[in-house]
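Our working data are protein records whose layout never changes between entries. Instead of coordinates, the fold is spelled out as a row of discrete tokens. Here is such a record, shown just as it appears in the course material:
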Amino acid sequence: MILGKLAGLDVYVTSRSEENRARVGEFGADAALPPGGRLPRRVDTVLESVGRATMNHSLRSLRAGGTVVVVGAAVGKPRGAR
């Protein structure tokens, strides 16, 4: 998030924790939303750290031609994984 702000990007953050959503403003987030919350607009890039549980929402959040960067998979195996 901090690197995004330093690069001049709009940064939206999601968290289940109300406390965490309140804190990210201290680090420069433009908005903090609960999981599944509606973004003000579609985004250029999503940093996906959860995995299967949130991937569909991440994909729907992208503008046409946008990019998902997978930085982790904390929840569930990807479809087709053994």
